[in-house]
Amino acid sequence: MKGVRKQSANKQAGIVTSKLSDAERDLLWHIENGYLLETDSLGSDLVLRRPKADEPLRPASANRKTLKALEERGLIVPGKSRDPLRIVWRLRRKAKE
């Protein structure tokens, strides 16, 4: 079929990517593609993990401010973790209105 395109995950979720920094877009892409974003209880020490392979990936350009900006925009929310000193972040199911 001509003219039929799949919408990107960012458009489906209602996220305006033009207002996001490169680091924010990178973190969202990883979360959308199956990575778990973990931080310590203070929001620092960002680590991306694949659920099956427990190998950590440290995002070079992301920091605590990047995480806080995504949370303030309502794009990610803290989730539950088995470890009380770790926070696993997830995408917000419905965009803030």
Helix content: 10-25%
Radius of gyration of CA atoms, rounded to a whole number: 14 Å
Helix/strand/pairing class, anyone? alpha+beta
Beta-strand content bin: 15-25%
Distance between the termini: 34 Å
Gross morphology is: globular
- Mean of pLDDT: 79
Order of helices and strands: HHEEEHEE
Number of domains: 1
Instruction: Kindly report the spatial arrangement of strands forming the biggest sheet.
Output: 3-2-1-5-4
Question: How is this structure best described in words?
Answer:
This protein is an alpha+beta fold. It has one domain (18-91). It has helices spanning 9-12, 22-32, 64-72, and strands spanning 36-40, 47-49, 56-57, 76-79, 86-91. A five-stranded antiparallel β-sheet has the order 3-2-1-5-4, covered by helices on one side. Strand 4 (76-79) and strand 5 form a beta hairpin. The longest helix is centred in the N-terminal third of the chain and has 11 residues, at 22-32. It is globular and about 35 Å long.
Top keywords for this entry?
disordered N terminus; 3 helices; single chain; 5-stranded antiparallel β-sheet; alpha+beta; 21% strand; 5 strands; 97 residues
Short description:
The chain is an alpha+beta fold. Helices cover 25% and strands 21% of the residues.
How would the blueprint of this fold be written?
Layout: H1 9-12, H2 22-32, E1 36-40, E2 47-49, E3 56-57, H3 64-72, E4 76-79, E5 86-91
Antiparallel strand pairs: 1-2, 1-5, 2-3, 4-5
